[in-house]
């Protein structure tokens, strides 16, 4: 763990100590992580006196230096649009009979250009349900609706891949996805039938939606039915311009293949699709703690006006979890990316 001594002490010495005398207390620091440092949140690194960098400076994590001209701390809420203000996924059922998957699939008109993946339907892994995610989206829905936002919720068998693809060109302002996330290296993917043969990182990272276990259990899917495994490559083909914030309340959503050109994975996919800000996790975090963090985040986010401060709400939620669960494992993995 990067945030434990002696690793944290060395990271502080290498990454921050050379700048410390040149950055004023309370300054805003914009940074673009690279290579192994994609797994590090600078604000969580302890200083020599034991306090955290985030207690002395305000850090803004960027996907690229070009984003600095677009950075905004706020979300302007528009109640006049035709699309829902928020779309929420959670409490998904990963085991669904193919017949029901076909029924759900038929509700959506998915453009053929977006249905490019034809994975081998076999494998030896299954994803287990996450009971706290349904409580999470129910609580968030209640918070948002209390502030007059229109909310569309997908739970159980209804959070299909088709439902997500239908957001193409019809994006909400807030997109919240509470489910399993995954990232496989090419070597590890050789053991997963559905991913076997794929070597690019954008096809080896993704999110599991309703019915996603079918592809791992060698079940035959009806023609035209998507398998419920939404890869980063799939997301890049969507137009999500207009999504002010995508919250990926899933394990390992901040992971991917680190290169000199950036991180190839879910964060690149959502940015390429047009999303402004992403909330994600750098490693697997407890289902219970994640739910607590997310509910507190939205409680802090929803304000009396219709210009909501996402960064302040995020920092408050992180501080709340840190107070309740001091070990960095529970709170340092949550990051906000512009």
UniProtKB/TrEMBL annotation:
<dbReference type="InterPro" id="IPR024983">
    <property type="entry name" value="CHAT_dom"/>
</dbReference>
<protein>
    <submittedName>
        <fullName>CHAT domain-containing protein</fullName>
    </submittedName>
</protein>
<dbReference type="Pfam" id="PF12770">
    <property type="entry name" value="CHAT"/>
</dbReference>
<feature type="domain" description="CHAT">
    <location>
        <begin position="6"/>
        <end position="336"/>
    </location>
</feature>
């Amino acid at each position: 763990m990067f945030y434990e001594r002696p690793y944290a002490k060395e990271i502080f010495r290498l990454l921050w100590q050379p700048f410390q005398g040149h950055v004023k207390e309370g300054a805003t620091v914009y940074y673009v992580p690279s290579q192994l440092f994609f797994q590090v949140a600078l604000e969580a690194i302890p200083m020599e006196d034991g306090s955290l960098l985030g207690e002395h400076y305000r850090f803004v994590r960027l996907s690229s230096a070009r984003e600095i001209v677009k950075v905004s701390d706020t979300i302007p809420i528009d109640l006049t649009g035709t699309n829902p203000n928020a779309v929420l996924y959670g409490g998904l059922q990963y085991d669904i009979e193919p017949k029901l998957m076909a029924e759900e699939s038929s509700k959506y008109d998915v453009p053929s250009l977006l249905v490019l993946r034809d994975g081998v339907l076999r494998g030896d892994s299954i994803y287990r349900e996450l009971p706290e995610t349904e409580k999470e989206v129910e609580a968030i829905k209640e918070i948002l609706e209390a502030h007059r936002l229109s909310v569309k919720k997908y739970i159980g068998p209804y959070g299909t891949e088709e439902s997500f693809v239908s957001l193409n060109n019809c994006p909400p302002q807030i997109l919240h996805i509470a489910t399993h996330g995954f990232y496989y290296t090419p070597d590890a993917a050789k053991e997963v039938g559905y991913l076997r043969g794929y070597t690019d990182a954008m096809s080896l990272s993704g999110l599991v939606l309703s019915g996603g276990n079918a592809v791992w259990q060698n079940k035959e899917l009806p023609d035209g039915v998507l398998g419920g495994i939404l890869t980063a490559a799939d997301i890049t083909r969507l137009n999500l311009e207009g999504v002010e914030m995508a919250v990926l309340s899933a394990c390992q959503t901040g992971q991917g293949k680190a290169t000199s050109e950036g991180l190839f994975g879910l964060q690149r996919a959502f940015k390429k699709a047009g999303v402004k800000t992403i909330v994600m996790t750098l490693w697997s975090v407890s289902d219970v703690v994640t739910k607590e963090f997310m509910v507190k985040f939205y409680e802090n986010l929803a304000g009396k006006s219709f210009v909501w401060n996402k960064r302040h709400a995020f920092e408050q939620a992180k501080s709340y979890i840190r107070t309740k669960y001091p070990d960095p494992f529970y709170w340092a993995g949550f990051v906000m990316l512009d």
